[in-house]
Amino acid sequence: MFDIKEELKKLPGSPGVYLMKNELDQIIYVGKAVSLKNRVKQYFQQSKNHSIKTIRLVEQIKSFEYIVTTSELEALVLECNLIKRYNPKYNIRLKDDKHYPYIRVDIHNVFPRVTVVRKMKKDGAKYFGPYTDSNAMWEMVEFIKKTWPLRTCTRVLPRDINKERACLNYHIGQCSGPCIAEINETDYKAIIEEVVSFLGGKYQDIIKRLEKSMEEASMNLEFEKAALLRDQLTAIKKIEQKQTASNSSMEDQDVIAFARSEKDTLMQIYFVRQGKLIGREHFLINDTQGEDIEQIFSDFIVQFYSEATFIPKQILVEKMPEDQQVVEEYLTMHKGSKVSLILPQKGTKHNLLELASKNAYITLSQFGDEIRRQEARTQGALSEIQEALGFNIQLNRIEAYDISNTQGIESVGGMVVFEKGKPKRSDYRKFKIKSIQGPNDYGSMEEVLDRRIARLVQKGEEDSFTKMPDLILMDGGKGQVGVAEKILDKYKLNIPVCGMVKDDKHRTRGLLYQNEEILLKPTTEGFKLITRIQDEVHRFAIEYHKKLRSKAQVQSVLDDIKGVGKERKKYLMNHFKSVELLRQASVEEIESVPGITKDVAMNIYTFFHKR
What we know:
Strand content: 15-25%
Domain GIY-YIG: 13-92
Largest sheet: 8 strands, mixed
CATH superfamily of the largest domain: UvrC, RNAse H endonuclease domain
Subunit structure: Interacts with UvrB in an incision complex.
Number of strands: 19
Keywords: Cytoplasm, DNA damage, DNA excision, DNA repair, Excision nuclease, SOS response
CATH architecture of the largest domain: 2-Layer Sandwich
Radius of gyration: 30 Å
Helix content: 40-55%
Structural class: alpha+beta
Subcellular location: Cytoplasm
Shape: globular
Function: The UvrABC repair system catalyzes the recognition and processing of DNA lesions. UvrC both incises the 5' and 3' sides of the lesion. The N-terminal half is responsible for the 3' incision and the C-terminal half is responsible for the 5' incision.
Number of domains: 5
């Protein structure tokens, strides 16, 4: 039996990490200490200075263990890794851990492309971002595509030059055609330099060049070219005017401020890139009454930047962490170059910090209740499901499965993922059934789960398939649950499986777990979350099934027309959108499609009208 008093006597005075455990031997808190002996003892001493969260924590501690480290920095790194691994109940947990998107330009390529990525790598490419407003980012990407004729294909150039016909983008003037040698490397690189300048916010250089080119085109009576340049100029000036919040330093900075209520703390972070404010994000940290704000800042900074793809050289903070030096060392180690925490007292940086602080209070007052409602719909709902099923484990990742077909034709499977009560669409997966013929939902589901679980147990590069779900939900009853349990037994995995059962009107009724139906009240957030998951997996599977049936219908019709191959099918469908609209088109309308000759247009028209 674990005797806490005896174990406290054995604690060393060296730096390290301690792990507090409850009666189920679950890790509920991870902390670091300069002296393990002094820090851990403080928890079990009567103190009026204990926060409410610390008091609740101590009430649940039944045992602890510790790991000795050689330095406080090593303890901080280990603490951070253990928090990510165990997700303890009483540590700060940022609810929003998404990776913000970047715009990537692979300038090391002979003919570079512009793409959107979620992680920044040391691969020689140029990255711009992160963009917290994904809609604004996609607007910028679309603007680049329409303004500069860059390639979007994945062909390996110059190896694949002239191996295939040009794509549709070339025919409509949105690609300069490097794949068919219509532009050389030097001219293409000049276009890329303009795009890089634009993404870097150097609008004035581009505006001056466009104005000069427009004047030259007008002087040479090239009015069509001049009009095109004028439209580009107007669009760039409009984007420039949107960048109203900026400073003259041209530095990359993050600005962290806070606002507190009686129970919670809201952390507001502003992202400043090259002197321009590009976005902000906020995080609500619950039950912080009685906790030192300096400690909250320290925990927040370490957790946020442990997952960040980019760390600026300067981080402006409204409160300086007590362990400032160790936190700076940690950030410097992650970035690979010096990172400084700054508490500005005056000037532009101070004004920016004040702006963030004011907005933090506005966000807390305006959206605090909404944030709590969102948490009730997500984290609260998971807790209700967890309690109803009698789980000791904390639910985080839920995977749900459904099969869709029409009389066994084009059978497909859909997998949706919910993490922390929210859909994680990047982890959704579609399965085209390969081994089953005819309407066999059980056999189809067995194939889907076998393929998915096989990927789970394989050792390879980390992706969504290598993440272990905490719960699997099947859109069906006992039969579908049995299929899932059979596959899990095959791979010797212990993952709980529930069936999502429906009533006579095909509406969610409850969960089937271990042959027992678990009913939740329809008014609870847990019940509503199950309904959302069931509706989402059903929608996802049906949409994929409809898409495959539509594609099969198009392929079967157009494959019989002489002169219509893979590329021409793509051009025709992009233009007419459906076989029925193509059927109604005249020869002239068909011939107007890029890549369609007069003979092929006549073949298509004759094919439909003979029938």
